[in-house]
Write a structure and sequence with these properties.
35% of the residues lie in helices and 18% in strands. It is an alpha/beta fold.
């Protein structure tokens, strides 16, 4: 009888152990399942964030610079145009919102508020400028030719008025950008043009883009007409120039007419750069995306007694471009903001652009 009782107790103990192991197995299975689910959800979240970040790099608005919050740290919000993957950015501005205000072209929002910035571009062709009067004219930026490559010999030349005009802008706190008239026939030459430009502007405060001016030259003996340059090479030269400028902490830009873009450039390869669009029409129907519009070559403005190119910028470059340079010089952070509150559009011109660039003189 005692053996039966002992055997019964053994069965009870074994049964209880079995129940304990079974419960432990269920608990472990639940924990493992939860961990697996969490890992899956984390992976999905990470992928979702990656997808969102990828989309953000394609569709980001113009934004402004944040304040510098730490020594040697500058957070710079870089503007970017609204883009759609797989499509060429085109002019998205409302043409009806461009109209003359106080004698100058301006772009207005749908409520009629002016949101563009008036500017001019200058070179030695404008021999005299009354800078105090120009400052009072309401001008908001100057794009100054810093230099050019000669048509025939290919020498790198500084614009005769560059230093004088650059100092005048800086002394009066007029936001300054520059452009270089290219006649490069190779990527290496384009890089040298960029380096030459960087040497010229190093001691000045640059608050607007540094642009490469690529356009048709009417002289049949010009080196860019004698040399065979296809759209792929010309685009690579633009990229080489722009990347050199970007690496130095400035904001690159490309000056090109619509015809030149269509016939001589691979626009898809250049989509990440802002364009400065020359189009001398009352209505802007420029085909491609742009951020500065050179709307006339025969404008007049207080402080200059002769005709001058007039521009409007759709972006307040002065609000962030200086911080780009500072960030590079101090090792600061360059951050992009995803806020989509402000969009930058794009712009069609059948009008060929007359050369106003360099020579060997």
């Amino acid at each position: 009888m005692s053996k039966i009782k002992n055997r019964t107790k053994l069965y009870i103990v074994l049964g209880m152990l079995g129940l304990i192991f079974f419960a432990a197995g269920l608990a472990a299975g639940y924990v493992m399942g939860s961990l697996s689910k969490n890992r899956t959800e984390a992976a999905q979240t990470e992928k979702g964030e990656a997808d969102w970040q990828e989309a953000a790099t394609v569709n980001k608005p113009q934004v402004i610079v944040s304040d510098k919050d730490k020594t040697n740290i500058t957070n710079v919000y870089i503007p970017s145009r609204k883009r759609i993957l797989g499509q060429i950015p085109i002019n998205s501005f409302n043409t009806e919102n461009f109209y003359i205000e106080d004698g100058f072209m301006a772009y207005h929002d749908d409520e009629g508020n002016k949101i563009s910035h008036l500017g001019i571009d200058l070179s030695y062709h404008q021999e005299y400028v009354n800078w105090d009067e120009l400052k009072e004219s309401g001008i908001e930026f100057v794009m100054l030719r810093c230099g050019y490559r000669g048509y025939s010999e290919g020498g790198l030349m500084k614009d005769e008025k560059f230093d004088e005009y650059a100092r005048a802008c800086n002394e009066r706190d007029i936001p300054l950008g520059v452009y270089f008239f290219t006649q490069a026939v190779s990527v290496e030459e384009a890089e040298k043009e960029a380096d030459f430009t960087l040497d010229l502007i190093r001691d000045y405060k640059i608050s607007y883009p540094v642009a490469i001016d690529t356009e048709y030259v009417s002289d049949s003996q010009a080196r860019t007409n004698v040399e065979e340059i296809d759209e792929d090479l010309r685009s690579k030269m633009c990229i080489a120039f722009c990347e050199r400028i970007r690496e130095a902490g400035y904001y690159p830009m490309i000056y090109a007419s619509e015809n030149w873009i269509r016939r001589e450039l691979d626009y898809e390869a250049l989509q990440e750069y802002d364009f400065w669009a020359p189009q001398y029409l009352d209505e802007n129907d420029f085909m491609y995306d742009f951020t500065i519009w050179q709307y006339t070559e025969r404008g007049f403005i207080k402080g200059i007694d002769e005709q001058v190119d007039l521009d409007i910028s759709m972006v307040d470059y002065a609000s962030f471009v200086p911080a780009l340079r500072e960030a590079v010089l101090t090792g600061g952070d360059i951050t992009e903001m995803e806020d989509a509150s402000i969009e930058i559009g794009a712009g069609v011109s059948e009008t060929p652009v007359d050369d106003n660039g360099g020579s060997d003189e």
